[in-house]
Task: structure prediction
Amino acid sequence: MKKYVSLLTMLWGDLMQNDSRSHVLGMLSDNDIKSFWGHGIDISTTEKGDLAFNLEKQLQLGSVDLRFRHEYKKIKLKSDEVLTYDMLKKHDYTQPYELQEGKKLVIGPGEMILTTTLETVRLSEEFAGIITGRSSIARLGIMVHCCQEYINPGHGQPIPLQIINLAPCPVELDLMIPICQLILFKLNSPATGRYKNGKKSKYADEEGPQTSKIYEDDLNGPSKTTPKISIGGVRASLNKYFAPFLPTIISLLLISPFISNFINGRSFLDVTTAIKELPLSFILGMIFLVIFIWLKRGDK
Result:
């Protein structure tokens, strides 16, 4: 019986934790990030050892530190050469490099490096982010992006970086030192889809650094299409208007009868008999429980 009561308590605690998370909005603190970890937010690397992602070391008070990948590209044109549209279409203006183990990245004055974060960042449609530099890196004259700061809801890959040396001298960077930080936000309602599924997601499959695909932009404007109802949209609506009431409904239909019978000192057999007498209540409670789990844990 004690074991059964403990199971009910754990279930109720999990329901309340999910419910409390659903009301968090805006910029996330370190406690918020830990709370949502595995429930819409996940960061990892394929690397092992010192290069593996470590949440305890890389989590700051309101952000997550990220490092740069050992694969990168440099623009190979000289200062008197013009980067033409034809070069863009042929991707014929950069030279790929790979930083060897134990070596450091040296960036010359005015030089720009195209790379990505070592870490893969996965967000559900409920979260978005902003990538920004670190003070210690900025004080070296290093900027980690030109203008691409916003991380879309549903992001599921490494984050592209444009590392630029604004200092008058070459600067040496260590692969182990975080180059930037990711600030995360909980949206008021989930986005209707993921970036990789959008028509304009030119860099959806980016793992290593990719050059510009500006030539793929639609200069005639977006085409008019008939809106489609998606599973993500249905989940978003239910999550916003229905999910906040589910813990109370589940408690009344599924959990309260058990607790009431235990308080009145009834045996486990009496509880089972009570369930048989109220099959509709129990079945409805289980249905609402499944819906709640689907809304809170589904499609991350």
